From TrEMBL:
Pfam families: TPR_16. PROSITE patterns: TPR (PS50005). Gene3D superfamilies: Tetratricopeptide repeat domain. The keyword Signal applies. Residues 1-25 form the signal peptide. InterPro entries: CellSynth/LPSAsmb/PSIAsmb (IPR051012), TPR-like_helical_dom_sf (IPR011990), TPR_rpt (IPR019734). Keywords: Repeat, Signal, TPR repeat. This is Tetratricopeptide repeat protein. TPR repeats lie at residues 432-465. It comes from Gemmata obscuriglobus.
Length: 1407
């Protein structure tokens, strides 16, 4: 039987017990070490900022030590650092409760902190019952803690215990009567939850009484009163909040939030100017306050001042570089201005700095829109609209809806466009952009009443600009014309009330009043209104043009041209006057006056004005149907913008199948490559039946089957027609019109399509819609139909014209246009139409002239019979204006008009002279006057008129002998006493023009005669324009004191619309004479009066610089974009103007070379460079200003960096600008600049501007022989080129062997352009060479009276040094003046360098 080994068992048991003890001991040791390790890991993670890791380890630690309060508190602190979520807040609140249960030491201050945190967490989590419990517990120990009472009230409000909450808030106020927030919360409870406005107002009144010196108390009440005013329509004037805000400013004049709110109230009260001033001052004080910056930017935007809005945002980003809230709106605006380069930079910054994704997505959508990928843009915007983060952002939603509407418009989806706009107006009933967008959409659909309602709704907003007013007025006027119960008085009153919405001093409201009067058939009243305003604004060319066109509607084109002669004298030669003249030349029957000359001699005009003139003339020729002239002008335009594909496409479209079309296609292919979409478009336009099938796939590939461009739709329709798909062609034509219903080509194509198809109803419907659309009504409608008629079969054209009758006969030029069309189409009813035009009420001389010409076509004797009838129907002057034109036509070439008495003979001579001069037939005009003077019994006053005009004809372009004859005639003039003001003005104009071609005593006598005439006119009318003209003539005579006296009289009337203009003239004159102390007063007044006008600010900036304060000049120049009126041009134009001004200021003699000049240069270069992608010509300014600052290498580098934007011609101009600069230029750099010029001349060997540039380049490089040859080449090609004549004379002036030839060249230039200061200076230098010192002295004195330049003063010094004996002291004085004005060795003739060095050394020694 087995037995137990007790000994072995005992050993085993002992071993087991020993092992178990060791295990227990090890576990005990390990159990104490693990929690400590977890605690250390949690601490390390917390120190490293790894909150989630720290929480994980700390929670594990607390599993070992769940009763340890310190760690529980630490865990609560870590949980509080996490982003708040509902679950997270609930967990945190549970933890706080656990901590409070673990430790009942209620009087430990730390535990009070825990309960406070639990209290706040409960409020944030919406656990209001827990919050009340904690709050009440805390208040047992802190019964006077106002903050606790306030938060308890918030919890009670959450539980809808409003009575208890009110008591708690009252306790908070009692415990802390100087704490604004408690009053604010109590008032909010009473107002919102208890619906007691009076009680809420009483609470805030108590607050103000308790805190009478606290500005924020008044601000709080102002916000509440603003809220009430928004809800109560009767309180729209915001009197209460504005009073409170004024009190805020009394207590704290620099209160930013008050400024923001008051500016908002000023905007709502439509006092935009006051709002603008407030925000400007506030942003100047707080440039880092993003709300203020955005507020000012937005205000500038609704003022129509996009450039200022951009500048405000740019300045804000300088102060706050990481301001994402500024980057997005800035990028948005830059996209609108086509500045994609800077937009891309901002987008990169946003992505690099991890900006909110919605901002980046928004800008990407805007960039896609800029690339015209409309469907992709709609998808991006739609996705962004549905983003959960965006749904709550009302403002962004509204903007996205507006963008959706814009994209839908481009896609031709009018239903989607309307819905998008309506979403905006539903959320914001006063959104101007949406209402205007709907208005334009309804106009496009022919829903004119709906459109009018939308424009009226837009005008209810204080942010609606003058542009919206104009749209509404023009539409309303058109609707009223067909309303038998039209209330025109209401419309006129609305225009008067809307004047503040236009820019300061804008003439647009007055022009609208004139249009409304004309729409009522009150043309005489419209003429009178505009005439009165021209007396107040004599320098406004736009106003004069409107007056001329309205006068032509009332009395005929000849009468309108008389007005333009006045405009030329008052406003000078400008694009508005020339375009109005071209319009009247084209409208006048017979068309004897040539339009071509109106595009010439604009070299001294700003580039944008030259382009505006050329573009306007394109429209004039297009109205005439003169395709050849249209193409010629477009070629001139595209030569200035060779990288503009749009202009090349326009040229290709108008050129048809001519050589110009081929050149345009080649240029586009060079820009886009042969596979570019625009090349395919060109090929579609010129495709034949044979090639259409091959071109069609290319166009479809480039633009798709449903193009989003009207021009592409029309080209594709043409291809479809050529390939036999007439249905598709018709649909595409309809789509083109839907996409661009205001484009001539689209409307013409659709009208022609309906007419050819015999769709009379559709044609009538379309014509009626267009004729009643204010964008088409009048001349545009007639022009469009006029283009369609010649391409239709005659019977179809006759029907179409008949359908137009009822639509156009209410317009002044409607029936005359019908007559012209009938004559052109040779319709049987043409004679009746022509005759009917003369019988209508308000028939003009044009109607009679048309009838006379029509009658003369088949029977030459019938013309004089018509003229006899016209004589009985028209005033004498009007009749002879008609006769003068008739005599210059082929039909009237043998007609001898009969003038019965002196008045009629004068009227006939005057009319015939006007026609001859307008045809550039000065010699023929002279014969008319000579014949008139040779007549019998010419009254003295009429003879004087004839002599003055004949003298001018002799002098202008005449020889010295002709000028003697002119003066002899002038001396026979008797007096001006019996002349009317208009005749006096004309006399002064003639004498002033004559004075340009005379010199010495003759010039003074003529100009004094002009002053006498102006003085008589001013005495008779008191019109300020005459007085200003007198001041300018006195200045030209060197009589500065009398000039200032005239200006001072003008400045006594601050209500004169031209007051600021006179102030500027006075300031410029005082600065020119170095009267800086007196000029300071004028500068201050000018800044206050016209702070938004560029010319005014430029004058003030020049004054500050010349007065020795260039820093202030720089500040004024840079401030222009912020203070300029909205009508001052777009962002690019304004940037260019500021850059040009800074360029000019940096080159002033007392500024050049200083640190401020360097800052000006850098600022100018920055602006020039920014606009180069959109305005390549800015590279010339950028290179020139760098070169003027001595940074030649930087200038060439800038050209190289921007080379992809710069066409060859502008690169050559930029190179020349560098050579003109003050810095040293290496031979390699000079050769590069010359190569650029030569490359351009290879392409355009006959270009006069390029030949002049090359000659100037050679002159600057001291290659006198080469320059001389170059200028001679120009003169050979263009003998009347004044610049070449003067420059060649200058080169020859210092050589005795060529001095006589130089004098001849100066005389030739004088005949062409008058004796200018430049020509006088050149002639004086020639006379110095010829030792004709007295003559040189007189010429230099005269030239300096024109403009005292540095070179002219240097020539005085040269004159003194060349006299015998020399006059070194006088020479040195003159040289000092030249140095003060900035003379440098590079400016003087090479032959005069030795004199320069001698005088410069003497000048240095004297110092």
């Amino acid at each position: 039987m087995p037995t137990i080994n007790k000994r072995f068992l005992l050993k085993m048991l002992l071993a087991l017990f020993a092992f178990s003890g060791a295990l227990v001991a090890a576990h005990a040791v390990q159990a104490s070490r693990i929690p400590a390790a977890l605690k250390r890991q949690s601490d390390r993670a917390a120190e490293a900022g790894k909150t989630d890791v720290a929480i994980h380890y700390l929670r594990q630690y607390l599993e070992f030590n769940p009763q340890e309060i310190e760690s529980q508190i630490k865990l609560a602190e870590l949980l509080a650092q996490r982003p708040p979520t509902q679950r997270g807040l609930t967990d945190l609140l549970f933890l706080y409760d656990k901590i409070l249960r673990l430790d009942q030491a209620r009087f430990d201050p730390r535990r009070h902190d825990i309960r406070r945190q639990a209290f706040e967490t409960a409020l944030r989590a919406g656990k209001f019952t827990d919050a009340v419990t904690h709050g009440q517990a805390l208040l047992q120990d802190f019964p006077t803690d106002a903050a606790l009472w306030d938060r308890l009230a918030a919890a009670q409000t959450g539980l809808s215990q409003h009575a208890a909450a009110r008591k708690s808030y009252e306790e908070a106020v009692r415990c802390a009567p100087d704490e604004i927030a408690h009053y604010q919360h109590l008032a909010q409870l009473v107002y919102k939850n208890l619906d007691d406005k009076t009680g809420a107002r009483a609470v805030l009144d108590r607050m103000v009484l308790a805190l009478p010196q606290n500005p924020n108390a008044f601000l709080t009440r102002a916000r509440f009163e603003t809220l009430l005013a928004d809800e109560e329509a009767a309180a729209r004037q915001f009197a209460r909040p504005i009073a409170d805000l004024h009190r805020v400013f009394e207590l704290d004049p620099e209160h930013a939030e008050a400024a923001l709110l008051l500016a908002e109230l000023m905007q709502r009260n439509r006092n935009i100017a006051a709002a603008h001033a407030l925000l400007r001052d506030a942003v100047a004080l707080y440039p880092k306050d993003l709300k203020l910056v955005r507020g000012l930017s937005w205000l500038e935007l609704i003022r129509g001042n996009v450039a200022a809005s951009i500048t405000v945002l740019e300045d804000g980003l300088k102060a706050t570089p990481d301001g994402f809230d500024l980057m997005v709106p800035l990028a948005d605006l830059l996209i609108q201005q086509n500045d994609t380069v800077r937009t891309a930079e901002i987008l990169k910054r946003l992505e690099a700095r991890k900006a909110p994704p919605t901002q980046v997505k928004y800008l990407r959508a805007r960039m896609v829109m800029r690339e015209e990928k409309w469907e992709q843009a709609v998808n991006l915007i739609d996705a962004l609209r549905r983003d959960p983060d965006v749904v709550k952002l009302t403002g962004l939603q509204q903007q996205l809806n507006l963008l959706t509407a814009a994209c839908s418009s481009k896609l031709g989806d009018q239903s989607a466009e309307e819905k998008a706009y309506q979403r905006v107006t539903t959320g914001d009933p006063k959104n101007v952009t949406a209402h205007v967008g709907l208005g334009n959409l309804y106009l496009n659909q022919g829903r004119f009443d709906d459109a009018a309602r939308e424009f009226e709704a837009a005008l209810q907003s204080p942010y609606a600009t003058g542009t919206v007013v104009s749209q509404w007025v023009k539409l309303k006027a058109r609707l009223l014309q067909t309303d038998p119960q039209a209330n025109w008085a209401r419309l006129e009153a609305a225009i008067g009330a809307a004047v503040p919405r236009f820019g300061r001093g804008s003439v647009e409201p007055l022009l609208l009043r004139g249009e409304v009067l004309a729409a009522q058939g009150k043309l005489s009243e419209a003429v009178k209104l505009l005439r009165q305003e021209t007396a107040r604004r004599p320098a406004d060319g736009h106003l004069w043009a409107a007056l001329a066109l309205t006068t032509a509607d009332f009395s005929g084109c000849a009468a309108g041209l008389v007005v333009l002669d006045e405009a030329q004298a008052s406003a000078g030669d400008c694009a508005d006057v020339r375009l109005a003249r071209a319009t009247l030349y084209s409208r006048e029957p017979g068309r004897v006056r040539p339009i071509e000359a109106l595009s010439e001699h604009t070299e001294s005009w700003p580039e944008n004005e030259q382009l505006r003139l050329l573009s306007g003339l394109v429209e004039v020729y297009d109205r005439l149907g003169d395709a050849e002239r249209v193409v010629q002008l477009l070629r001139r335009i595209v030569a200035r913008q060779p990288s503009n594909v749009g202009v090349w496409l326009k040229l290709h479209e108008r050129a048809g199948a001519g050589a110009a079309a081929g050149a345009a296609r080649a240029a586009i292919a060079k820009l886009e490559t042969e596979s570019g979409p625009s090349v395919a478009l060109c090929d579609a336009r010129t495709a034949t039946v044979e090639s259409a099938a091959a071109v069609l796939p290319r166009v479809l590939h480039a633009f798709g089957a449903a193009p989003t461009r009207a021009d592409v739709c029309l080209a594709l329709a043409r291809l479809k027609a050529l390939t036999g798909d007439a249905t598709a062609a018709a649909e595409l034509t309809e789509r083109a019109f839907k996409l661009e219903p205001t484009r001539y080509e689209c409307a013409e194509a659709l009208v022609a399509q309906h007419a050819k198809a015999g769709a009379a109803d559709r044609t009538a419907q379309l014509l009626g819609r267009l004729a009643n659309d204010p964008r088409w009504a009048g001349e545009p409608f007639r022009r469009m139909v006029g283009h369609v008629l010649p391409i239709l079969p005659t019977p179809v054209a006759a029907n179409l014209l008949a359908q137009c009758r009822k639509l156009v006969e209410r317009d002044p030029n409607g029936l005359p246009w019908m007559a012209e069309c009938g004559v052109a189409l040779r319709l049987p009813e043409a004679a009746n139409l022509v005759d009917e035009a003369t019988r209508r009420p308000g028939a003009t001389s044009d109607d009679w002239l048309r009838k006379a010409l029509f009658a003369s076509r088949d029977n030459p004797a019938a013309g004089p019979e018509v003229l006899a009838a016209a004589r009985a129907a028209l005033p004498v002057a009007t009749y002879f204006q008609l006769v003068a034109v008739y005599c210059d036509t082929a039909a009237g070439s043998t007609f001898t008009p009969d003038a019965a008495g002196p008045a009629e003979r004068r009227a006939l001579a005057q009319a015939r002279l006007s026609v001859k001069l307008s045809r550039s037939q000065a010699a023929e005009g002279g014969k008319v006057l000579e014949a008139y003077l040779a007549g019998k019994d010419v009254p003295a006053a009429d003879a004087d008129w004839a002599r003055r005009n004949l003298a001018m004809i002799y002098a202008v372009g005449g020889t010295p002998e002709d000028r003697v004859r002119a003066m002899n005639l002038i001396r026979t003039v008797v007096s001006t006493e019996s002349l009317s003001p208009e005749e006096l003005r004309a006399t002064a104009s003639v004498l002033t023009t004559l004075g340009r071609y005379l010199e010495g005593p003759d010039r003074r006598a003529v100009l004094n005669g002009a002053i006498t005439s102006l003085a008589a006119a001013h005495k008779a009318t008191n019109a300020p324009s005459y007085l200003f003209a007198m001041s300018q003539l006195y200045r030209a005579l060197g009589e500065r004191r009398k000039s200032r006296e005239c200006l001072q009289i003008l400045l006594n009337d601050e209500k004169d619309p031209s007051y600021a203009f006179y102030l500027r003239a006075a300031l410029d004159e005082l600065v020119e004479d170095n009267y800086f102390e007196a000029a300071a007063t004028f500068a201050g007044r000018l800044t206050a009066k016209a702070g938004g006008d560029f010319n005014a600010l430029a004058s003030v900036a020049r004054f500050e610089c010349k007065a020795g304060r260039p820093e202030r000049g720089l500040a004024i120049a840079e401030d222009y974009a912020r203070v300029a009126d909205g009508g001052s041009g777009d962002y690019l134009v304004r940037s260019a103007r500021v850059a040009e001004l800074l360029d000019e200021l940096s080159r002033l003699p007392n500024v050049r070379g200083t640190p401020v000049a360097r800052r000006m240069t850098d600022a100018a270069v920055e602006r020039y460079t920014a606009i180069v992608p959109n305005r390549p010509e800015a590279i010339v300014g950028a290179a020139g200003v760098l070169a003027a600052d001595g940074r030649t290498a930087d200038a060439f580098d800038r050209i190289e960096r921007l080379n992809r934007y710069i066409p060859a011609r502008l690169r050559a101009s930029a190179g020349l600008a560098i050579v003109r600069g003050r810095g040293e230029i290496t031979e390699r750099q000079a050769e590069l600049a010359r190569k650029w010029l030569d490359d351009c001349l290879t392409e355009e060997p006959d270009s006069i501007p390029l030949l002049l540039n090359r000659a100037e380049f050679l002159a600057l490089r001291r290659d006198t022989a080469g320059a001389t040859k170059g200028f001679k080449e120009v003169i050979k090609k263009e003998p009347k080129n004044v610049i070449a004549l003067n420059n060649l004379a200058w080169l020859l002036a210092a050589d005795p062997t060529t001095a006589d030839e130089a004098l001849r060249l100066v005389a030739q230039a004088t005949r062409e352009g008058g004796l200018t200061g430049e020509l006088l200076d050149t002639r004086a230098r020639v006379q110095i060479t010829l030792k004709q010192h007295t003559a040189a002295h007189h010429d230099l004195a005269e030239a300096i009276s024109h403009q005292p330049t540095a070179l002219r003063w240097f020539h005085v010094a040269v004159l003194r040094m060349s006299q015998t004996p020399q006059q070194p002291e006088e020479a040195l004085k003159a040289f000092e003046e030249a140095k003060r004005r900035g003379i440098e060795p590079k400016d003087v003739h090479p032959a005069d360098l030795s004199v320069f060095k001698v005088l410069d050394a003497a000048n240095v020694q004297r110092r």
